[in-house]
# Entry
Amino acid sequence: MDFIRKNPSLPVFIAGLAIFTLVVTFMSEAYGAGALSTSFVKTLGKTLCLALVAIAMDLVWGYTGILSLGHFAFFGLGGYMIGMWLMYARTKLIVVESMASAALPPTPSEISDAIGTQIFGVVGSSEFPLVWMFAHSFWAQIALVVIVPGILALVFGWLAFRSRVTGVYLSILTQAMTLALSLYLFQNDSGLRGNNGLSGLQNLPGADGISQDYISIWFFWASAFALLITYLIAAFVVSGKFGSVIRGIRDDEARVRFLGYSVEGFKLFVFAMTAVMAAIGGALYYPQAGIINPAEIAPIASIYLAVWVAIGGRGRIYGAVIGAAFVSLVSTYFTGGQAPDIPLGFYTIKWVDWWLVLLGLSFVLVTLFAPKGIGGLFDLITHRMSPKRGGAPLGPDDGSLREQEAEK
Amino acid sequence: MTSNASTLLEVSGISVTFDGFKAINNLSFEIGPAELRAIIGPNGAGKTTFMDIVTGKTKPDEGKVLWGDLSRNLIGMNEAKIARAGIGRKFQRPTVFEDQTVFENLLMAVKNDRNPIAVLFFRPKAKDFAKVEELAAEIGLSDQLERKSGELSHGQKQWLEIGMLLAQDPKLLLVDEPAAGMTLGEREHTTDILKEAAKTRAVVVVEHDMEFVRRLECKVTVLHEGSVLAEGSLDHVTQNQDVIDVYLGR
# Structure
């Protein structure tokens, strides 16, 4: 009960998510009236995954004050890890089937070569690179979804935090990390099919008889469940003394140090934990998207993530969820060609081109005039007030809470 | 001076230079386990730098800082480790976590396992609540526990910070200008808190204000240009001609 008292938004969030899931289920092609197309169910499922990674971003930036602009790298890596198994297992089924009609039964090495040719023919190779050594095993790749981004975050975080890199410099470093990873993956000999990426991920191995109508709603459920668990973990992490310490680090990390807490240890813990959260989000997102390529982890993707959290409201978990869901759905609307063009006579505003300008402008406006973001609208109902501090932030550090973001 | 069983902290021969400016020059200092000491000196005498060195914020160019019965050298240890070894520090301007309640501030400071995993699963027990309430009573903030500390008055923030220091249960308290910006009544309360604390632990107070130092009724160390100019009772040092020249006689 104490947990709910400290997180009054929790019951509202759970109820909201449950209702949303039910409504989508009963409007889907598979289990309901069919009012929502399968592709739109996939869009909603992907949106839930983006909301999940936004929670991770809020923990690391909104609560700990580390403006990481590289968390989408972990999201993408999670997608790659699950994508390797999906691609391998499905290609194997196809290869085995096509070889079954041959006069002689194929040897295991013939099967392996045929799979390799199928997968890597596009980059002019047929050999399995070393990184695919576990691709045949579902459970191994599931473990790698957590292990690979987790270890990358631990190593990167350890180097960066130990040297006490903070603020803008840390943000630049994280951008460099995601840029380097994406450039590496763009190479054909990186072993992950270069700019082709991994594709056909929406087709689950051995599920050819099951329509995408069903698969899409199953992934939607899985995404909703993962979002719920992430929300609960995030609420648990920020509500106790751990939350106190990380908010202390955000506002005044030197003071936390003099209290005897290892600031580096706490930052590393949060950084790695959120990297793993992001990776799980990615592992659920890309089977719904069907394709992953290195462009997904370009630096801009991680910047979007920060924009979502800022627009939704930093330092409140539901703010991150709302920001990610709202901005990514609106973005789908404008960039999907559904928004009508606006003819001005001398010029026609095409939303596909102008959407990014609108998003950039909203980001600037929210930062300047509504620092609480969309989440701040809830304060009108709950009568949450900001303290009057004459414009002073809540602490001396770069990431510290600003006056309007704080609660009286 | 040699180290003996009654020395808690022994600083010997430390020097530090910032861009050619010698902030601390061959400074030596020692304090016993239950002692109140005031450090005075004009601006730039090296008072704050001295605290920075003891707490691990600044690394000296030379010298040793020996701590405790085992005479461990603190130089090279990071701030958090030194704090866990038992040295608490209060900054000149009150630094409390303004977005958090008085209770949260104190609970964070109460001596418990500081490991991230232990902190994550930490749930305050009856003794932790009792400790927070006891401290809040001591610093006069019992009825403010649920308030955000950012709303407190300047003096209350100073006390809260002292309370957070006491919560860590340090063996040595370093307090930088605790009376700055306080009213007369608040000063008296602060003196009482510090004197009480010094009964069970070492307390070093850096102070500008002579009246406040007089009220502490303790041994005084005068710093000038990064080294010790004089040491003794307040009356003793105020009669020292060097001290009069550089500090009092301005």
